[in-house]
Amino acid sequence: MHPVSKHQLFGKAKHHYQDVKDLIRYCSLDQPYDRSEVIWLYGQKRKLVDLFRAYNIPEIYHAEIAASMVCKSCGNHDFDLNSYVGTEEEKYNQIHVKLVEADRKFKKKIIDLQEYIKVYPSLVLDNPLARKIQKEIESGTLPKCDLKDFDCFRSRIVGDAKVFKSVDLGAPDIGIARIGRYNHPGQSVFYVSESRDCSVAEILDDYHQPALIWIQKYHIDGLSNILDLKIDWGGYLDFDSILFTALLNNNVLERRMSKDNSTWKPGYLLTNFIADCAKKANYNGIRYNSSKFKDSNIVLFDPKHKAIQAIDKPDVFIHDPIPPL
Ligand SMILES: [Zn+2]
User: Fold this and answer.
1) 287 has which bridge partners?
2) Fewer Cβ within 10 Å of end Cβ, the chain: N or C?
3) For the chain, percent of residues with pLDDT exceeding 70
4) Å from CA of 23 to ligand 1 middle
5) Is residue 32 within 8 Å of residue 86, measured between CB atoms?
6) Exposed/middle/buried for residue 36 (C-beta within 10 Å: 0-12, 13-18, 19+)
7) How far is ligand 1, taken at its centre, from the CA of residue 58, in Å?
8) Predicted structure pTM score
9) How far is the CA of 75 from the centre of ligand 1 (A)?
10) Rounded to the nearest whole angstrom, what is the distance from the C-alpha of residue 136 to the centroid of ligand 1?
11) CB count, 10 Å around CB of 301?
12) Cβ distance 41 to 32 under 8 Å?
């Protein structure tokens, strides 16, 4: 949740406020005490006025902007120019530099590849960037994860009086499946979500409307070698691949697709290609950010893998989320 400024700022003050508003990651209230002595653990300790000077904010705006600052960690908004705050600018800057660099190197090539694959989907390896993607996936240097004692979910909207069994919530068979993010049309793979709410968000057009849902829970005892493309913003700092940084940061792999009946889904061609590369490199699946929810999804290439166990029968429940403010 983004903190909301309690004061309305205008013009130049607002402009300067934008520069620094995300920098207060912690304040003195977040720090532990040792007998009334603050032990500054979280964030780089700085006086607010020094931070404003470092960002070349003219003094006439200082007091006004200080009064509008909110601590990202605890929501404290009681600051003056002599308050100490904990910043994480170094990390922020490093990530920013990395993303700009990734875009400089690859953004245009990614756009070219997306156009190329639309015209020649089966000749995509003629494109140098496609070859680089395959090479990186095969090199084994991208992050991977193991699923151990792992619960996951699939859901379907209740459409009629039929009582579903586990098999009805399973993966569609070969020849039945429609094209998906990580499967070609007709290919049978197993998509699951890491949380119940994420699996519900995946099937609903509007998550904020109540709905009647079938849900099936699964348990995976152990399944290793999952290509891990789930990332949040802070994760880019330790993410080694500049190419995949560019792909992920530009939402190339996570674009929302319309649910219309068109058989032409060019936005899935690149992710279909990545799935082929991952399969050929002996990955068992791919973990990726949901385009609709904060949790992630996983595609498993073998829907009949013995490690996947349905837990009990599917359940019906009323999805009734709290409406957004
Ligand atoms: Zn705080």
Assistant:
1) 228, 298
2) C
3) 97
4) 12
5) no
6) exposed
7) 25
8) 0.75
9) 6
10) 41
11) 21
12) yes
Rounding to the nearest 10 degrees, give the CA dihedral for residues 266, 272, 277, 279.
-170
Quote the ligand 1 centre to 268 CA distance (angstroms): 42
Give the mean model confidence (pLDDT) for residues 69-98. Answer: 88
Please name every residue paired with 227 in a beta bridge, in sequence order, or none if there are none: 144, 286
Which amino acid is located at 282 in the chain?
A: N
User: How far away, in angstroms, is 314 Cα from ligand 1 center?
Assistant: 43
Long-range contacts of 107-112 (CB under 8 A, 24+ apart): 107/246, 107/250, 110/246, 110/247, 110/250, 110/252
Report how far residue 130's alpha carbon sits from residue 271's, in angstroms, rounded to the nearest whole number: 11
Q: What pLDDT does residue 4 have?
A: 47
User: Span 281-296, mean pLDDT?
Assistant: 92
What is the arithmetic mean of pLDDT over 72-80? 94
| Average pLDDT estimate for 247-275 | 88
What's the whole-number mean pLDDT along residues 131-144? 97
pLDDT in tens, 212-242: 999 999 999 999 999 999 988 778 888 999 9
pLDDT score of 3 = 47
Q: What is the 3-state secondary structure (H, E, C) of the chain?
A: CCCCCCCCCCHHHHHHHHHHCCCEEEEHHHCCEECCEECCCCCEEEEHHHHHHHCCCCHHHHHHHHHHCCCCCCCCCCCCCCCEEEECHHHHHHHHHHHHHHHHHHHHHHHHHHHHHHHCHHHHHHCHHHHHHHHHHHHCCCCEEEEEEEEEEEEEECCCCCCCCHHHHCCCCCCCCCCECCECCCCCCEEEECCHHHHHHHHCCCCCCCEEEEEEEEEEEEEEEEEEECCCHHHHHHCCCHHHHHHHHCCCCCCCCCCCCCCCCHHHHHHHHHHHHHHHCCCCEEEEECCCCCCEEEEECCCCCCCEEEEEEEEEEEECCCCCC
* pLDDT tops 60 at residue 1: no
